[in-house]
Amino acid sequence: MNKDLRRERDSASFNPELLTHILDGGAERTRRRREIEALVLNDPDFQHEDLNFLSRSQRYEEAIRKSALMVVKLREYGIADPDEIYWFKRTCQGSFAEPIGLHFSMFTNTLQNQCSLAQQDKWLPPTYGLQIIGTYAQTEMGHGTHLRGLETTATYDPTTQEFILNSPTVTSIKWWPGGLGKTSNHAIVLAQLYTQGQCKGLHAFIVPIRQLGTHEPLPGITVGDIGPKFGYDEMDNGYLKMDNFRIPRENMLMKYAKVEPDGTYVKPVSDKLTYGTMVFIRSLIVGDSARSLSRACTIAIRYSSVRHQSELKPGDPEPQILDYQTQQYKLFPLLATAYAFHFVGAYMKKTYHRITGDINQGDLSQLPELHALTAGLKAFTSWTANAGIEECRMACGGHGYSRCSGLPDIYVTFTPSCTYEGENTVMMLQTARFLIKSYTQVSSGQLVSGMVSYLNDLSGQHIQPQQVAARPTTVHINDPASLVEAYKLRASRLVEAAAKNLKAELNRRKSQEDAWNRTSVDLVRASEAHCHYVVVKLFTTQLSEINDAAVHAVMNNLCLLYALYGISKHTGDFLQAGILTDAQVTQVYQRVKELLTAIRPNAVALVDAFDFHDNHLGSVLGRYDGNIYENMFEWAKKSPLNKTEVHESFHKHLKPMQAKL
Amino acid sequence: MAQWNRSGYFRSSGSRDVNPDLDGERQTASFSVERLTAILDGGADNTRTRRAVEAVIHSDPGFSRENQYFQSQNERYETAVRKSVYLKEKMHQMGWTEDGPEIKYCYRALGGDLAFNVHRVFKNSILALGTDEQIAKWIPLADKYHIIGTYAQTELGHGTFLRGLETTAIFDISTQEFTLNTPKISAMKWWPGDLGRSATHAVVFAQLYIKGKCYGLHAFILQIRSLHDHSPAPGVIVGDIGPKMNFEHIDNGYLMLQNINIPRENMLSRFSQVLPDGTYMKQGSDKINYLTMIITRVQILWTEVIPMLLKACTIAIRYSVVRRQSKLNPGDPEAKILDYQTQQQKLLPLLATAYAFHFMNAYVNEFYNKGYTEIKQENFDSLPELHALTSGLKAIITEYCTAGAEVCLRACGGHGYSALSGLPFLYTKLAASCTYEGENTVLFLQTARFLVKCLAAVHSGQPIPPSAAYLYSVDSGKCQAWTKMDFLRPDIYGEAYRHRATRLLGNAATKLQALVQSGAEQHEAWNQCTVQLVQAAKAHCHYIVVKNFIDTVEKLRNEAEIQKIVKHLCDLFALHGIFSNTGEFLHAGYISGDQMDMVTASYLDLLAIIRNDAVPLVDAFDFTDESLNSALGSYDGHVYQRLYEWAQKSPTNQQVSQAYASYLKPLFQNALSKL
Question: Where is the region Disordered (chain B) (predicted)?
Fold first, then answer.
């Protein structure tokens, strides 16, 4: 092991293994996770060439090979628990996408949730058996967020009892669905349902797209890959164009809405039920934000302990770059953020499971708040992690730019989560809608509950708009609980400001929608402040659940750093609202720097606690043993350009040129 | 694609098939796009020359970029080599010279996707550091490409800190040769462009040793590959460093040297030489070389970095008026996404930033020319300022452009993530600029060091250089704005920026002094203040850019319409900067809370105003469709058709993948009987 890393590990003030247990949710789960990871790591069938040196087609093929293998092995080992399946797959794939991934998630879930019993009997067995591989085709080339704008049509023909599917325009071509281009033989297609001459809105249909056996596209179906992307090389995101393609009436998913044989349309019951799935998927993205940022931090912090540069003190040897204050300032707040998001993800998962219980008992009362909260947290965490991963990469200087660092891949794989499953700005505005609604409720004298209950404190103060600002400044910058209060005040101030600006626009006789649009910058700020408050609060709550004193001390510092760094980046909000004074802001800056120094000795142990295996990290710079330079050289030798000692372009272009000039 | 966008066809949109949503935006421009283009080009003559060059390049299929996004690393490298060789021929054929006005327009038209960029650095370093005999020997060979050179400085374990480089060159009096060695793995040269596969020669930086004594870093020319068969010279291990985030067309390389002997004459000896008896001699000042390095750093900004932000803005803004989503008013059709305030807030400040940076070119050139004249007369006084100014500007410009391109990418939703949008390419190329030619944090700290010295000069009443002269101004106390309209006054916001820069520098310097006085060693005190010092340097650079933008608007007084729109952009750039850094302006009370609300109000008003001219403002950049190479950003706005056509060309749709037969088919087989 590299001597710098060894020294870092020896001097940690706490046992990282205990922290790993906390992150995993218990020592037993850590043990089981490692056991499952070992199944993959020790299995020669899963070995493969470094993906960095493969073409897109080769990467796709490798991913399919592994997917097929995983299906077989998981069944062989009898692994069925969702977490355990996740651990297994993650170890196989790193963070890369699985072309069959949507089959296991959206396709199967939609069948389970939206099929009638008869439909379930027909479709689920071949789906579980992977004779059918399906994807979920919603987004169109010209339409994403606004579902009502989708143009694909499904017109019912009572004479044959079939739906006729059509892509009437270029913009209506299904575009982006994962696994659609080359892998799937079926798709759940969302289309505008027309029956008896009327549009009944968006419904889901099961559409066979490729011939079983030959895998050729069916007549009337045009399907293919949408081409190269920023990342997701192994994923065949696809397009799908349908021309008078007929499917039987039974292929419409009919658990809720129905079309009778004669074309009569039967309306569905509540649509809130679909909220549950969205909450679940968003909680996964929050977890992914935490993990992706954790991986980036692991790489950047280990590399910064091994890399030496310049001099701090004239005449001394070059110091580890992690000893520079500017480097600590780049990385440690991100490390704190990774931990914070981890706890938010765990909280969301727990809440989802709790609420799922309520839903099954018919209680949907908490869904709207949860739905609104998770929209904002999805956006907040993915934006922050997205920027953080890039900061980690740049903190590794030139070498971060090489694919051998693993950081470009983490970034390009993660960044679409800012867009998919709800574009972040749109998500923030959904949360804002809930915040404004809650604010309006409070203004009219009703109390609100849950994470927005702080708005209750605003009641009765619209007569004196300055009241929040006039609050005595009693924030204690070393007390996490007091900082939670400060974030709460900031959120309530920004929600109030947005609500008032919205009202002012409405008073100018703007339409509701126009006024909303003209306030949306304020509304997004309010949502961000609300989410920031929730994250600080959840991190602080987590502290009280840590029993080990040494771990607690380290986590307390991280929590303080998270909260204070956030303040230092948004001092304007805290100053303008009178939550902090100029002098306190200066103290905050100072305290942040002291915390950097305090965290420095534990930085490596804190990333070790994430417990990423080198295979999963996929980074030469982030190797556990720190033997970076010799392994960079080994890696580079495998580059495709190095296949021959003299590259063919020498003979084709260089030599003829030299002869001519 | 080619038939849609021959340059020249689309200067007037009326005659062409343009998406009506885009065409409508062009009909309502408040100014003459053609006139603004001429101003941006530095005169209508330049615009004419540029378009003539673009027409030649784009009409030649040898320069097509059609397949760029589908190519592997190997193919991109080969294409870059092929195009570079072909460009030489083309230039020769057209009568364009290496120092003529056309060459930079060739680069612009080709999107910079060429090899042999470091070959120029190789030549420049010989011209700067070589004796007249050395120049006479090497430069003609390099000019004719009989040799291809690279510049090998950075090592695997060492970048920024040059003194830390480990490669050695030991002089042997008996043979009159230097022996070059890579003593350990971290000393391997790593990253130099053109090194991996192309170069035959390299200027290598190594620690010079004579009779056991180290004389520091010097430059040596050595041959690394055979001129007959291109195989590596004995003792040379050379290769490509592998795939990167972008720049896959460049063969960044590694180089390991094992007892390579080169004659004494191969040390570049203009400023220091080793005599046959091993005597080491220094002569003259190599500061002029330093100036060359500065200008290399700066030229990249206006030829590579800033144009990429301009392109990203062009793509994202055009797409945002073609893309429609959701409804702003019930009953209306779906709205153009640029009509959403949140979309305007993402893109329009970037558009203002693009203009702000573009206009910095003249400012920096003026500094450079003045410095150059002085330095030629052996007067080196302006060098520290030029160094500080260009360091800070390089850092702030690359940082903003990189972040900006990423915002553009995400502002295009899912389609921005497609390589065919062109945005991933622009972003990943820009991302490298934050670390190459000086890591940004290191550069900001160099600017800060200069500023701290200037502040000390102010306190002792010494004269200080012009770019920091504002530190002498008297503090105006409080911001003088009373209404939101006041924040559209350049004197008001200019002063706010000045105040912030002065205050942050003052705070950092005070802290530094306090630490030193309390007994901390100088270097430790400096490290403890670096976060603050970086903040101060950024505020300084931000002020310089705002100030120059204000001056630029002033100079447009004979162009009323254009002055008006550029003034709006200047206001937006300045107010967005305040809006995004409220704390730094509120702290210490220069701007009050109420005034900050006015800033926000004025800022949001500006978004709505500039929205109306957004498309003409990006049209004025006048990028050809070929150089944008984006399915989303083309002039005619036929976004969806183009995406569909381009996607079908993807190799994934043409090659038969083994995935189905090998892995999928076995899974599917059981279904045949059941469905």
Answer: 1-24
**CATH no. for residue B196?**
2.40.110.10
- Residues of chain A with C-beta less than 8 angstroms from the C-beta of B670: 126, 129, 131
B523 touches chain A (CB under 8 A): yes
**A580-594, A638-652, B351-365, B423-437: lowest mean pLDDT where?**
A638-652
Cβ within 8 Å, pair A514-B328: yes
Out of A431-435, A465-469, B492-496, B638-642, which region has the weakest mean confidence (pLDDT)? A465-469
Residue B6 maps to a domain: no
* Residues B410 and B512 grouped into a single domain: yes
| Euclidean distance between CA atoms B117 and B299, whole angstroms | 13
- What are the angstrom distances between the C-alpha of A523 and each of A256, A418, A430, A449, B109? 35, 18, 10, 20, 42
B3-46 residue pLDDT tens: 333 333 343 344 469 999 999 999 999 999 999 999 999 999 99
Taking an 8 Å cut-off on Cβ atoms, the answer to whether B197 and A56 are in contact is no
Instruction: Give yes or no for residue A150 having a pLDDT over 50.
Output: yes
pLDDT of residue A148: 86
Q: Is B130 within a domain?
A: no
Q: pLDDT by residue (tens digit) across B264-275?
A: 999 999 999 999
Question: Does the structure show a pLDDT above 80 at A661?
Answer: no
Whole-number pLDDT of residue A274: 64
- Domain hosting B203: range is 147-283
Which of A170, A630, A642 faces B641 most closely, judged by CB atoms?
A170
Query: Do B171 and B318 share a domain, yes or no?
Result: no
CB neighbour list of residue B602: distance below 8 Å, 6 or more residues apart = B484, B485, B487, B488, B571, B575
Q: Write down which residue in B621, B640, B663 finishes a domain.
A: B621
Instruction: Identify the structural domains of chain A with CATH numbers, from first to last.
Output: 1-17+280-448+481-640 (1.20.140.10), 132-268 (2.40.110.10)
Phi, psi of A265 (to 5 degrees): -95, 130
Q: Are residues B57 and B160 in the same domain?
A: no
CA distances from A83 to A32, A36, A90, B108, B372 (A): 10, 11, 10, 51, 66
| Residue A407 confidence (pLDDT) above 80 | yes
Q: Rounded to two decimals, what is the model's pTM?
A: 0.94
How far apart are the CA of A1 and the nearest CA of chain B, in angstroms? 16
Do B223 and B81 belong together in one domain?
no
Residues B275 and B310 in one domain: no
Residues B209 and B343 in one domain: no
Q: What is each CA distance from B566 to B36, B580, B598, B607, in whole angstroms?
A: 10, 21, 21, 13
> Do residue B326 and residue A397 have CB atoms under 8 angstroms apart?
no
Is residue B5, in this structure, part of any structural domain at all?
no
CA distance between the termini of chain A: 53
Residue B63 domain flag: yes
Same domain, B331 and B217: no
> Is A369 an active-site residue?
no
Total domain count, chain B: 3
Q: How close does chain B come to A394, measured CA to CA in Å?
A: 7
Query: Among positive and negative, which fits the CA dihedral B12, B14, B19, B20?
Result: positive
The verdict on B251 and B225 lying in the same domain is yes
Contact A520 B342 (CB under 8 A): yes
Span A438-451, average pLDDT: 91
Catalytic residue (choose from B54, B437, B495, B584)? B437
B60-74 tens-digit pLDDT: 999 999 888 999 889
